[in-house]
Write a structure and sequence with these properties.
This protein is α/β, with parallel strands linked by helices. The protein has two domains: 12-50 and 295-391, Aspartate Aminotransferase, domain 1 (Alpha-Beta Complex); 53-290, Type I PLP-dependent aspartate aminotransferase-like (Major domain) (Aspartate Aminotransferase, domain 2, 3-Layer(aba) Sandwich), CATH 3.40.640.10. It contains 14 helices and twelve strands. It has helices spanning 12-15, 23-34, 53-62, 78-92, 108-119, 135-142, 167-172, 191-204, 233-236, 261-274, 280-290, 294-317, 341-352, 378-391; strands at 40-41, 102-105, 125-130, 146-151, 173-179, 207-211, 237-242, 255-259, 330-334, 354-355, 357-358, 369-373. The chain has a seven-stranded mixed sheet, with helices on both faces. Strand 3, helix 6 (135-142) and strand 4 (146-151) form a beta-alpha-beta unit. Helix 3 runs antiparallel to helix 11 and helix 5 packs parallel to helix 6 (135-142). It is globular, with a radius of gyration of 21 Å. The protein binds pyridoxal-5'-phosphate (PLP).
Length: 392
Amino acid sequence: MSRKRISIEPADRVKNLPPYLFATIDRMKEKAVGRGVDLIDLSIGDPDTPTPRHIVERMRKAVKNPQHHQYPSYAGMLSFREAAADWFRKRFNVSLNPGTEILSLIGSKEGIGHLPLAFINPGDVVLVPSPGYPVYPVAALFAGGRSHAMPLLEKNGYLPDLKAIPRGVLKKAKLMFINYPNNPTAAVAGRAFYKELVEFAARHNILVCHDAAYSEIYYDGRKPLSFLQVPGAKSVGIEFHSLSKTYNMAGWRIGFAAGNREAIAGLGRIKTNLDSGIFQAVQEAGIEALKTDDKVLGKIRDMYRERRDVLYEGLTALGLEVRKPVATFYLWAKVPPGFTSTDFTVRLLNKAGVLTTPGNGFGEPGEGYVRFALTVPVRRMKEAVDRIGEAL
Ligand SMILES: *Cc1c(COP(=O)(O)O)cnc(C)c1O
């Protein structure tokens, strides 16, 4: 019998993955925890409170139904897509055909990651925001395409400057990702930007993919818009929605895409060949989630708002330059003069036991910033502010 070991060489697409910029920080975090540091982790964009009870209850009942133990349908249960359409109409006053304009996703990350496989050929360009969610450029790479970074700068309100995209890039651009309310900058986009974007996309034949994962995490009654509210948006784009952040359901893996029917059909064809849909009991829980009384969500928003106020006021009093977010559960803060993003993150970790995310990890234009997540209780948030004060 041959005992020769084969050489298992990773594919180029894996070898060509961009360096994981959080690796150093992860190692330092492990060391700190190993030393017994009482770490306050403000680096994680994962809701820390449980899924509302009525959603869990619906799941408990649905899991006993043997019909749900079989393969789900590829496009998702029509009843879930109808619930998504109802939610969209109530929330944004946008009508969507649940049969052709909505697709269920195993979390929005899954849809974002797969979409370029449906539309990108080698050499095609995908426009991605930077700083931004790392999945956008990686999804472009996995599909054989190239990504072109659109810097999100403070002076532009963290919106991409569409006029700054070079002509040569535009010729090859086929797809654009945008994300508002934005992770990591917490910026929101207004109607004027979406209007400009729809015109731009139509002129240059670019499919717009709007990641709206944080559309329901907002403060002071300032509800973010859907990109699909702008006339013509459905002709040029789709929007990704997630139940993870809104309903504290990150572990359940459920979301949906909505909008342009060709884009929905293309993504659906990829998924039909790769996955077998969402566990139907989870879809039933999703239907329940989408019907959640706004009072329940109001309480979740109030909780984040209280944390936001503590952190914003605390950091501002310490002399840090921070934007007060009107949406998302992140705070985007400038690092003090003389620090890089990494320096400052390391300083807070080692001197205060507070972990943040260095802005450069989201792309080079994020250098000079750190991101704080509002995902710890307000008592711990106060302690974080005290400790940062002592460390500075
Ligand atoms: C959390 C997050 C997602 C992914 O959400 P899932 O639906 O859980 O996959 C997508 N985009 C951004 C910007 C996020 O922060």
